Amino acid sequence: MKKESVWLLIAGAAAGIGVLFVAFVYVPAVAGECRETYPEYAALYWPGLASAWAIAGLFLLGLWEYFRVCFRIGRDRSFCMENVKSLRRITAYMAAMAGLFLMAIFAPGLLFRLAIGPAWLMLLLCAMASAALALLAYGLSRLLRRAVEIKEENDLTV
Questions:
Q1: 100: exposed, middle or buried (C-beta count within 10 Å: 0-12, 13-18, 19+)?
Q2: Alpha-carbon torsion angle 5, 74, 84, 16, nearest 10
Q3: What pLDDT is attached to residue 158?
Q4: Whole-angstrom distance, CA of residue 99 vs CA of residue 56
Q5: How many CB atoms lie within 10 A of CB 141?
Q6: Which residues, 6+ apart, have CB-to-CB distance to 5 below 8 Å?
Q7: Are the CB atoms for 65 and 88 separated by under 8 Å?
Q8: What is the pLDDT of residues 67-123, one digit of tens each?
Q9: Measured CA distances, 3 to 64, 68, 127 (Å)
Q10: How many domains does the chain have?
Q11: How far apart are CA 30 and CA 92, in angstroms?
Q12: What DSSP element (H or E) covers 143?
């Protein structure tokens, strides 16, 4: 396995551990405190946790595809259609995450007439980052698809 792919895998594992901590430790703790402090919004507790867990699940699915790409890079199979498909799936997961972040912003506001505050602004930044990652993964999948086509043409002529 190439040294670069090992570092990519380590970075991905660190990101995955961070997301698991946030989704299953930090968010439930903060949501529990909010439920006790603001009992009138207690109905948001379980939907909020469910959306946080769904977002974490989508992130982990995208991370799984990222790991698959890293392993292929480590085996010197960078330019293959499997990587194109993995990048397309990452695009879909990140776009779905952006949608869930936006839903987490606007649904409570519409249902409970909550004012948009700092937490919602942070969710908006996360939605924008997810959308940017989706666009980046889509662009890379298009670029990689073309590179695979050129590689296949060159392999046939040699």
A1: buried
A2: -40
A3: 57
A4: 13
A5: 19
A6: 70, 71, 73, 74
A7: no
A8: 999 999 989 899 999 999 999 999 999 999 999 999 988 887 766 666 667 878 888
A9: 19, 16, 32
A10: 1
A11: 29
A12: helix 118-157
Tokens of 147: 């590179």
Query: 126 falls in which pLDDT band (50, 70, 90)?
Result: very high
Q: Which pLDDT belongs to residue 145?
A: 96
Greatest CA span in the chain, whole angstroms?
71
Q: What is the pLDDT of residues 15-65, one digit of tens each?
A: 999 999 999 999 999 999 989 998 988 888 999 899 999 999 999 999 999
Distance CA 125, CA 16 (A): 19
* Six-digit token string for 14: 């660190």
Amino acid letter at 14?
A: A
Which amino acid type is present at position 101? F
Domain extent, residue 152, equals 3-157
Taking the whole predicted model, whether its pTM rises above 0.85 is answered as yes
User: Tokens representing 47?
Assistant: 């939907």
